Amino acid sequence: MTRHGGFEPVFCTIVPPHVLDRLAQAGDPVLAGPARRTLQRDAYERTQRRLTTVVGARAVAPLAAEPGTPHRTVHDAGHGTGLPGRAVRAEGDEPGQDATVNRAYAGLGATFELLLSAYGRDSIDGAGMPLVATVHYDRDYNNAFWNGEQMVFGDGDGEIFLDFTLPIDVIGHELAHGVTQHTANLDYFGQSGALNESVSDVFGALIKQYSLGQTAAEADWLIGAGLLAPRVTGTALRSMKEPGTAYDDDVLGKDPQPATMDDYVRTGRDNGGVHINSGIPNHAFYLAATTLGGHAWERAGQIWYDVLTGGELRQDALFTDFATLTVKAARARFGQGEELLAVTKAWERVGVRTL
């Protein structure tokens, strides 16, 4: 496979299939029905992406008016599945009465701002790509996804999941899949797929921290906090601080993410466990960022961004490949200082060797 020779069809969701599978098998039809319908819709959308050549959102939306300024459009699907739906808020429009629309608009803006201010990147493709989102997708749809061209948000079923625009890191996570698509284009299977998911968790967390002005020590390092309904025993979808502890619920089961290679999960499901084993590189980033302290997007985030966009990361990269490049990037940007030591030690602690 040639590197960066065009975009691979991609369909990335925030809620892993194994969570929805568990819900679909619940004895309560109120819980099982929406999960089954979500799985069916996800399977359909995933197939559509495989049949479509992704050419980027600029093929279906106008370019931003000025470099370095966002060009956002939020659409309302009206609980249907046609995309993008009816345009309800364009760049510069005042907030309306629909809080979901306003949150989506703000989350797109926060993602654009972090990329530009911290890394000098003009939108997710680096060339002013318009940011397109659709809200109120389908009925009781328990997911949010990036389909290679735009963001899509469900409203949740109200029983297990709430509105998917509530956590800003969910918005950032899915848009970060777009950044990966336009840079390293990591294969969505096995360890490279887990790295793809982890990079999205990393930048989703950084977008939340940036928008809240939090230091690494102040952050909760949770992905999707506020998304789970009150009946669920859990705090979020994933924890970068303590992978495997985000939820432990009678219906959802226990968070299966490992924190180190000792507990690496070998499975053919979920594209080889991309949402599960991402806990390992997630934890490495958390360890590096909290060791360095301060704002995580400034040093640890910069190192991860350098690797993602530097041109050396193979599409089929393993954890060892990514870890080795972070050490190289830390040395190139910061020399032999504490950044290099923090990154090296972080990978050691999660059991990933660097070459």
TrEMBL record:
Active site, renumbered: E174, H275
Any single GO CC term annotated in Swiss-Prot or TrEMBL for this entry: extracellular region
Span of domain Peptidase M4 C-terminal: 184-352
GO BP field: proteolysis
GO molecular function, one term: metalloendopeptidase activity
Enzyme Commission numbers on file: 3.4.24.-
Domain called Peptidase M4: residue spans: 98-181
Its biological purpose: Extracellular zinc metalloprotease.
Alphabetized PANTHER family for the sequence: NEUTRAL METALLOPROTEINASE, PTHR43579
Protein known as: Neutral metalloproteinase
Species of the source: Streptomyces sp. SID14436
Organism classification: Bacteria, Bacillati, Actinomycetota, Actinomycetes, Kitasatosporales
